[in-house]
Amino acid sequence: MMKFKPNQTRTYDREGFKKRAACLCFRSEQEDEVLLVSSSRYPDQWIVPGGGMEPEEEPGGAAVREVYEEAGVKGKLGRLLGIFEQNQDRKHRTYVYVLTVTEILEDWEDSVNIGRKREWFKIEDAIKVLQCHKPVHAAYLEKLKLGCSPINGNSMVPSLPDNNSLYVTSAQTSGLPSAVR
Protein backbone atom coordinates (compact mmCIF):
# COMPACT_ATOMS: atom_id res chain seq x y z
CA MET A 1 0.00 0.00 0.00
CA MET A 2 1.29 3.51 -0.80
CA LYS A 3 0.27 7.10 -0.20
CA PHE A 4 1.66 9.94 -2.25
CA LYS A 5 2.91 13.16 -0.68
CA PRO A 6 3.98 16.01 -2.94
CA ASN A 7 7.63 14.93 -2.94
CA GLN A 8 7.66 11.43 -1.51
CA THR A 9 5.90 8.08 -1.59
CA ARG A 10 4.94 6.52 1.73
CA THR A 11 4.88 2.74 1.95
CA TYR A 12 2.85 0.67 4.39
CA ASP A 13 2.91 -2.97 5.41
CA ARG A 14 -0.11 -5.28 5.36
CA GLU A 15 -1.15 -4.18 8.85
CA GLY A 16 -1.24 -0.49 7.91
CA PHE A 17 2.03 0.52 9.59
CA LYS A 18 4.22 3.05 7.81
CA LYS A 19 7.48 1.31 6.90
CA ARG A 20 10.52 3.24 8.17
CA ALA A 21 14.24 2.64 8.60
CA ALA A 22 16.85 4.32 10.80
CA CYS A 23 20.44 3.92 11.98
CA LEU A 24 22.17 4.46 15.25
CA CYS A 25 25.33 6.03 13.81
CA PHE A 26 28.39 5.42 15.97
CA ARG A 27 31.76 7.16 15.82
CA SER A 28 33.56 3.83 16.35
CA GLU A 29 32.90 0.12 16.81
CA GLN A 30 32.98 0.69 20.59
CA GLU A 31 29.50 2.21 20.18
CA ASP A 32 30.04 4.77 22.93
CA GLU A 33 29.19 7.93 20.94
CA VAL A 34 26.10 8.24 18.74
CA LEU A 35 25.29 10.87 16.12
CA LEU A 36 21.95 12.66 16.46
CA VAL A 37 20.46 15.21 14.06
CA SER A 38 18.19 18.17 14.64
CA SER A 39 14.52 17.58 13.92
CA SER A 40 13.21 19.15 10.73
CA ARG A 41 9.95 19.99 12.53
CA TYR A 42 11.53 21.19 15.81
CA PRO A 43 15.10 22.36 15.08
CA ASP A 44 16.01 22.68 18.77
CA GLN A 45 15.30 18.97 19.41
CA TRP A 46 17.49 15.97 18.56
CA ILE A 47 16.42 12.76 16.80
CA VAL A 48 17.90 9.54 15.41
CA PRO A 49 18.26 9.89 11.62
CA GLY A 50 15.72 7.83 9.71
CA GLY A 51 12.64 8.01 7.54
CA GLY A 52 10.17 6.28 5.30
CA MET A 53 11.05 3.38 3.05
CA GLU A 54 10.43 3.79 -0.66
CA PRO A 55 8.58 1.19 -2.77
CA GLU A 56 10.67 -1.95 -3.36
CA GLU A 57 13.44 -0.62 -1.07
CA GLU A 58 15.05 -3.00 1.42
CA PRO A 59 15.17 -1.81 5.06
CA GLY A 60 19.00 -1.74 5.22
CA GLY A 61 19.25 0.27 2.01
CA ALA A 62 16.60 2.71 3.22
CA ALA A 63 18.43 3.17 6.53
CA VAL A 64 21.73 3.95 4.77
CA ARG A 65 19.99 6.37 2.37
CA GLU A 66 18.18 8.20 5.18
CA VAL A 67 21.40 8.61 7.19
CA TYR A 68 23.19 9.99 4.14
CA GLU A 69 20.36 12.49 3.47
CA GLU A 70 19.69 13.56 7.08
CA ALA A 71 23.09 13.27 8.78
CA GLY A 72 25.56 13.53 5.90
CA VAL A 73 27.49 10.42 6.89
CA LYS A 74 28.44 7.14 5.25
CA GLY A 75 29.58 4.03 7.02
CA LYS A 76 29.58 0.31 7.53
CA LEU A 77 26.06 -1.05 8.05
CA GLY A 78 26.01 -3.46 10.96
CA ARG A 79 23.42 -5.58 12.67
CA LEU A 80 19.67 -5.02 12.82
CA LEU A 81 18.99 -3.88 16.38
CA GLY A 82 15.26 -4.51 16.10
CA ILE A 83 11.97 -3.43 14.61
CA PHE A 84 10.26 -0.81 16.73
CA GLU A 85 6.56 0.05 16.65
CA GLN A 86 4.96 3.34 17.52
CA ASN A 87 1.25 2.62 17.73
CA GLN A 88 -0.53 5.44 19.49
CA ASP A 89 -0.70 8.24 16.96
CA ARG A 90 1.56 7.46 14.05
CA LYS A 91 1.47 3.69 13.41
CA HIS A 92 5.14 3.48 12.41
CA ARG A 93 7.20 0.29 12.17
CA THR A 94 10.89 1.19 12.07
CA TYR A 95 13.81 -1.11 11.25
CA VAL A 96 16.76 0.15 13.32
CA TYR A 97 20.31 -0.74 12.34
CA VAL A 98 23.74 -0.03 13.77
CA LEU A 99 26.10 1.88 11.49
CA THR A 100 29.79 2.64 12.13
CA VAL A 101 30.59 5.99 10.53
CA THR A 102 33.54 5.98 8.12
CA GLU A 103 32.94 9.27 6.26
CA ILE A 104 31.50 12.62 7.35
CA LEU A 105 30.44 15.07 4.64
CA GLU A 106 31.02 18.78 5.24
CA ASP A 107 27.79 19.73 3.47
CA TRP A 108 24.90 17.37 2.90
CA GLU A 109 21.37 17.48 1.50
CA ASP A 110 19.46 18.40 4.69
CA SER A 111 22.12 20.81 5.99
CA VAL A 112 21.89 22.81 2.76
CA ASN A 113 18.11 22.53 2.19
CA ILE A 114 16.71 22.89 5.73
CA GLY A 115 19.68 23.82 7.94
CA ARG A 116 19.75 20.48 9.77
CA LYS A 117 22.53 20.09 12.35
CA ARG A 118 24.26 17.01 13.74
CA GLU A 119 26.10 16.35 16.98
CA TRP A 120 27.88 13.45 18.72
CA PHE A 121 26.48 12.37 22.09
CA LYS A 122 27.61 9.89 24.74
CA ILE A 123 24.96 7.14 24.94
CA GLU A 124 23.60 8.24 28.34
CA ASP A 125 23.32 11.86 27.21
CA ALA A 126 21.60 10.85 23.98
CA ILE A 127 19.02 8.82 25.91
CA LYS A 128 18.30 11.84 28.13
CA VAL A 129 17.77 14.28 25.25
CA LEU A 130 15.63 11.78 23.32
CA GLN A 131 13.40 10.78 26.26
CA CYS A 132 11.69 14.17 26.42
CA HIS A 133 10.26 14.38 22.91
CA LYS A 134 11.19 11.12 21.10
CA PRO A 135 10.91 8.32 23.68
CA VAL A 136 10.73 5.65 20.97
CA HIS A 137 14.16 6.85 19.72
CA ALA A 138 15.49 6.63 23.28
CA ALA A 139 14.20 3.04 23.31
CA TYR A 140 16.59 2.18 20.45
CA LEU A 141 19.57 3.11 22.63
CA GLU A 142 18.06 1.49 25.73
CA LYS A 143 17.76 -1.79 23.82
CA LEU A 144 21.38 -1.44 22.73
CA LYS A 145 22.43 -0.97 26.37
CA LEU A 146 20.37 -3.96 27.50
CA GLY A 147 22.41 -6.51 25.64
CA CYS A 148 22.74 -5.94 21.93
CA SER A 149 26.18 -4.35 22.07
CA PRO A 150 29.07 -6.25 20.46
CA ILE A 151 31.19 -5.39 23.52
CA ASN A 152 29.38 -7.93 25.70
CA GLY A 153 29.24 -10.60 23.01
CA ASN A 154 25.48 -10.54 22.49
CA SER A 155 24.41 -9.54 19.03
CA MET A 156 21.11 -9.74 17.23
CA VAL A 157 20.49 -12.00 14.27
CA PRO A 158 21.82 -9.92 11.35
CA SER A 159 18.62 -10.18 9.33
CA LEU A 160 15.03 -11.19 9.80
CA PRO A 161 12.67 -13.15 7.60
CA ASP A 162 10.09 -11.17 5.66
CA ASN A 163 7.38 -11.98 8.20
CA ASN A 164 8.94 -9.34 10.52
CA SER A 165 8.83 -11.52 13.62
CA LEU A 166 10.89 -9.28 15.95
CA TYR A 167 9.16 -6.20 17.33
CA VAL A 168 9.68 -3.87 20.24
CA THR A 169 6.67 -1.71 21.02
CA SER A 170 6.65 1.52 22.97
CA ALA A 171 4.52 -0.27 25.56
CA GLN A 172 7.34 -2.78 26.14
CA THR A 173 9.80 -0.03 27.07
CA SER A 174 7.42 2.03 29.22
CA GLY A 175 7.63 -0.42 32.12
CA LEU A 176 11.39 -0.19 32.41
CA PRO A 177 12.84 1.53 35.48
CA SER A 178 13.54 5.21 34.89
CA ALA A 179 17.27 4.58 35.32
CA VAL A 180 17.11 2.33 32.25
CA ARG A 181 14.51 4.34 30.34
TrEMBL record:
<feature type="domain" description="Nudix hydrolase">
    <location>
        <begin position="18"/>
        <end position="145"/>
    </location>
</feature>
<dbReference type="GO" id="GO:1901911">
    <property type="term" value="P:adenosine 5'-(hexahydrogen pentaphosphate) catabolic process"/>
</dbReference>
<dbReference type="GO" id="GO:1901909">
    <property type="term" value="P:diadenosine hexaphosphate catabolic process"/>
</dbReference>
<dbReference type="GO" id="GO:0000298">
    <property type="term" value="F:endopolyphosphatase activity"/>
</dbReference>
<dbReference type="GO" id="GO:0034431">
    <property type="term" value="F:bis(5'-adenosyl)-hexaphosphatase activity"/>
</dbReference>
<dbReference type="GO" id="GO:0005737">
    <property type="term" value="C:cytoplasm"/>
</dbReference>
<dbReference type="GO" id="GO:0005634">
    <property type="term" value="C:nucleus"/>
</dbReference>
<keyword id="KW-0694">RNA-binding</keyword>
<dbReference type="InterPro" id="IPR000086">
    <property type="entry name" value="NUDIX_hydrolase_dom"/>
</dbReference>
<dbReference type="GO" id="GO:0046872">
    <property type="term" value="F:metal ion binding"/>
</dbReference>
<dbReference type="GO" id="GO:1901907">
    <property type="term" value="P:diadenosine pentaphosphate catabolic process"/>
</dbReference>
<comment type="similarity">
    <text>Belongs to the Nudix hydrolase family. DIPP subfamily.</text>
</comment>
<protein>
    <recommendedName>
        <fullName>diphosphoinositol-polyphosphate diphosphatase</fullName>
        <ecNumber>3.6.1.52</ecNumber>
    </recommendedName>
</protein>
<dbReference type="GO" id="GO:0030515">
    <property type="term" value="F:snoRNA binding"/>
</dbReference>
<keyword id="KW-0378">Hydrolase</keyword>
<dbReference type="InterPro" id="IPR020084">
    <property type="entry name" value="NUDIX_hydrolase_CS"/>
</dbReference>
<keyword id="KW-0963">Cytoplasm</keyword>
<keyword id="KW-0460">Magnesium</keyword>
<dbReference type="Pfam" id="PF00293">
    <property type="entry name" value="NUDIX"/>
</dbReference>
<dbReference type="GO" id="GO:0008486">
    <property type="term" value="F:diphosphoinositol-polyphosphate diphosphatase activity"/>
</dbReference>
<dbReference type="GO" id="GO:0071543">
    <property type="term" value="P:diphosphoinositol polyphosphate metabolic process"/>
</dbReference>
<dbReference type="GO" id="GO:0034432">
    <property type="term" value="F:bis(5'-adenosyl)-pentaphosphatase activity"/>
</dbReference>
<dbReference type="InterPro" id="IPR047198">
    <property type="entry name" value="DDP-like_NUDIX"/>
</dbReference>
<dbReference type="InterPro" id="IPR015797">
    <property type="entry name" value="NUDIX_hydrolase-like_dom_sf"/>
</dbReference>
<keyword id="KW-0479">Metal-binding</keyword>
